[in-house]
Design brief:
Helices cover 33% and strands 33% of the residues. The chain has 170 residues and is an alpha+beta fold. It has one domain: Hotdog Thioesterase (Thiol Ester Dehydrase, Chain A). The strands form two sheets. It has a five-stranded antiparallel beta sheet. The chain has a two-stranded parallel ribbon with strand order 1-7. The radius of gyration is 18 Å and the shape is globular.
Length: 170
């Protein structure tokens, strides 16, 4: 990689360049015996949507480092359309917090409902698995600025919880 490519990869990018959206139709093989989407399938889709946003921002390979607490707010049924929207909230040197919000769209009743939200941490890596620096993200809208600031608080909470778990193991 030449110096020009390195400089291009290192330049700060606005949040809007990381926005990723995906849609999935819930099929019978995605559902449990109650005809509702299996939670693990939704978690998989959230991970994919988050990885796309992290990849778009970093222009590097990314791996999932963690996922924060998740709630499943409403059931999603076979035949429903699931919409996932993800974007980078904040960058911390080699890691990124990505927010993913999920809606269910019932196109028969024309209703959209919030299903779940999650915050994931992704790390950029090279071919050997070594961490790579990630360019800063630039929040532009009021909502992006709020999520940018909130991401720092969530990171502090994650670090405190990690330290607490380490103490318990000792």
């Amino acid at each position: 990689m030449n110096d020009e490519d390195k400089a291009r990869l290192a330049r700060p990018r606005p949040v809007r360049e990381s926005i990723s959206e995906m849609a999935e139709i819930v099929m019978p093989n995605d559902a449990n015996p109650l005809n509702a989407l299996v939670g693990g399938r939704l978690m998989h889709w959230i991970d994919l949507a988050g990885a796309m946003a992290a990849h778009r921002h970093s222009r590097q390979r990314v791996v999932t480092a963690s996922i924060d607490h998740m709630d499943f707010l409403v059931p999603v049924r076979v035949g429903d359309l699931v919409i996932l929207r993800a974007s980078v909230n904040r960058v911390f040197n080699t890691s990124m917090e990505v927010g993913v919000k999920v809606w269910v769209e019932n196109y028969r009743s024309e209703q959209n409902r919030h299903v779940s939200s999650a915050y994931l941490t992704f790390v950029a890596i090279d071919e050997a698995g070594n961490r790579l620096g990630v360019p800063p993200v630039i929040p532009e809208t009021e909502d992006e600025k709020r999520r940018y600031e909130d991401a720092l608080r969530r990171r502090e909470i994650r670090r405190a919880e990690s330290a607490r778990r380490k103490e318990v193991r000792i």
